[in-house]
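During the no-cost extension, the postdoctoral fellow (Dr. R.K.) reprocessed legacy sequence entries with the updated structure-token encoder. One reprocessed record is reproduced below for audit purposes.
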Amino acid sequence: MDPSQIGFFHALKISTKINKGQIEILKEVHVCKKGIVVGNSEAAFLKKLNMTPFLYGMELHSVYDDGALLSAEVAKITPEEILKSFSEGVNNIVSLSLELNIPTLPAVPHMINTAFKNLLAISSETPYKVAALEKAQAAAKNV
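Re-encoded structure tokens follow.
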């Protein structure tokens, strides 16, 4: 803007200086803020700078899905959050199944692993031998 327009800046109490025939703003200034009504001088100033301080859009209050009315927070859930919740649930099922010694699909691999470890422990202390354990012991001796 040319120096003749400096009155807009002074009306809004914006510190300026004239540099090479143009108005220079000395520090960052917020002319309008969210929730505060924009006055005539602020609106005219922003219009001269070719700026529009308004954002138009919709605000989500609830979600209707297949006959169910859900809160707006449901729409904000990300796939990562869903996967995290699912993983935590599976971990809880596995922990409970292992503690109660009830086989469930996610707990069976852990149960088999524990049983195999117990079998290897018994085999190492008794004359009964397991081929996998003998191979592992032979490999350990060669290292």
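Residues 79-142 form one domain. The CA atoms of residues 7 and 39 lie 16 Å apart. The remaining legacy entries will be reprocessed before the final report is submitted.
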